[in-house]
Amino acid sequence: MTDLVGRQDIDAAVRRAVETSDITDIHTHLYAPAFGDLLLWGIDEMLTYHYIVAEFFRVVGDEVDSDRFWSLSKAGQAELIWEHLFLRRSPISESCRGVITCIQQLGIDPSDRDLAMIRRWFADTDVETHLDRVVELTHVRTMVMTNDPFDEAERPCWTDALRYDERFRAALRIDTLLVEWERACAALRGLGYDVQPDLSGPTEDEVRRFLDEWIARMRPVYLAASLPPSFRYPDASAGAQLLERCVLPVAAEHGLPMGMMIGVRRGVNPRLQLAGDAVGKADMASVGNLCSAFGQNRFLVTVLARENQHELAVIARKFGNLHVFGCWWFVNVPSLTEEITRLRIELLGHSFTPQHSDARVLEQVIYKWHDAKVMLARVLTDKYAVLGQVGYPLTEGQIRGEVANLLGGSAMRFLSGGAS
């Protein structure tokens, strides 16, 4: 044990490991540059992100009508948001502070508070150069996209000629199939699949054919679905039946995990468009039921409600085919990510993935992973210090390896068929 770490040196060893380890971001809404305008980046995209739009409408009251706001160009929306949330008020919320962290980390002086200057900075670069800069700054070497064959804007991109950056991996998103079967049925029929609203006839075979074809085209690392808190298994709904009879058998055949993000309530306030979604408590017994009934399948799960986190971690202790990942959306705030990560370490050791960015705009990778690394270093330092107090020897190499696992190594092993 030539690289044995003394108790007084644990903090420095952990910080070195966290800062230098490569990261696999296992769930984003980013796209490789080859997808063109689907990859969102730049200050206007950051400012008009739906997290921030929701905050904007809280503070403007009757001063800005929602119809007027949505009729503006993206630049016009960004200018209003900058005025109300970054100039008239300090950007103290997590989402607004994240924007400031991004521009500061990129070398832009946020004390100028000059939106025109920030825009000029972004205008002077190109997306490929900017992507390289973000990757080097964050050490995020692999980003898993969210790829939806039901998306009219994305589907045409998936041609035989598509060649995209190897730092990006695909995830086949099937929300529409499981949550909006009526709409999915109409879309599949339009694409030439012989499916019926009541699941009769060749519907199940055709859904499996659809999945097989898109798996061959995308080569995803997992299937993905964002599910409402009302999701149940077993259940007589079309979504549960399709999951049982089509999705999970196909996933098992291809050796792909089923990724489930559970707990979003869509369109609670339609006026806010994408910003109008909310959170609900999910049924964790359904996750256990799936893990038990489909032992040949692997499940990658995160939940949106704080109230579900403890039960999910306990279920993961019971089922090796369940990998818990990330602090998603409304629980991706420092006070909760630290609480949740401590809970998971205490129940699961290293066999989970503490964070993913969920980034929809490229620069969000910067602040989300900056925050995640600071939090993870603090939590691990505390946990390793307790081991040191009871006489357990730690080496620099062991700490580096365990940090690398938590920053994506464990997840990639699970996605490839290994244990967490």
Structure characteristics:
globular; alpha/beta; 9% strand; 3-stranded parallel beta sheet; 12 strands; TIM Barrel; 420 residues; 5-stranded parallel beta sheet; 17 helices
In the CATH hierarchy, the third-tier topology is known as TIM Barrel
Cα gyration radius (Å): 22 Å
Number of strands: 12
CATH class: Alpha Beta
Number of helices: 17
Number of domains: 1
Characterize the main sheet: 5 strands, parallel
Describe this structure in words.
By secondary structure, the chain is of the alpha/beta class. It has a single domain (4-38, 142-415), classed as TIM Barrel (Alpha-Beta Barrel). The chain has 17 helices and twelve strands. It has a five-stranded parallel beta sheet with strand order 5-6-7-10-11. Helix 1 packs parallel to helix 17 and helix 15 (334-348) packs across helix 16. The two termini are 26 Å apart. The model has no long low-confidence stretch (mean pLDDT 97).
